[in-house]
Amino acid sequence: MANPPFEIKPNQSASFVVWNHTSVTPEVRAQSLGQQPRCIWFTGLSGSGKSTLANALEVALQRAGIHTMLLDGDNVRHGLCKDLGMTAEDRNENIRRVGETARLMVDAGLVVIAAFISPFREERARARELFGPGQFFEVYLQTSLAVCEARDPKGLYRMARSGKIADFTGIDSPYEVPDSPEVLLDTAAHDVDTLVMQLLSRAFPERWPS
Ligand code: ADP
Questions:
Q1: How many domains does the chain have?
Q2: Quick check: is 20 in a domain?
Q3: pLDDT tens for residues 58-89?
Q4: Taking burial as the number of CB atoms within 10 A of a residue's CB, which of 43, 66, 154, 183 is the most buried?
Q5: What is the CATH number of the domain that holds 42?
């Protein structure tokens, strides 16, 4: 019997995946929304203020008529990443999925705000690589462990210290401080409104010149 032209084994199928080129490009989508899409990526310890500032930033952008989407670390773990735990491997996969999702949304023309501890330099670098020049803004919330632990908004530090949570960033899992973030915010020194203004003028200078 003649061999079929291609023998496709299940574990080799990825090599047959091609890119389909669409007529409507990311540039066209951005133009039709009248904005320059980008990804604002918050990183910092639990309790450093990522969710609080991401939320305040999204409100400010929406008030200015900018189309946004917010991806929050706690929220994606209820769906997109509900099968993942907190080991280093699972954290990497969590950030890989979120990076790809953010990239798709940027291709749709949105300003995407991502709020994830994202403790490892390499995973943040891999997320950055998914975006075009000037589209990725790493925002490091420089809030000390002592301040985060004193805030402890979800009681997680207390649980980690008493051994009820394992692999908790800052306690028994490392946080690698960003080398050269686009924006560094000191949440112990300034209030939320001031920090949002600092962020807008750094990440959206065309709309909020300083
Ligand atoms: P994360 O998302 O990084 O875990 P959260 O935003 O959930 O952090 O919690 C940060 C806590 O710190 C909130 O209770 C917030 O009200 C408080 N907080 C106090 N000052 C600030 C500030 N300047 N910026 C952000 N959060 C602040």
A1: 1
A2: no
A3: 999 999 999 999 999 889 999 999 999 988 89
A4: 43
A5: 3.40.50.300
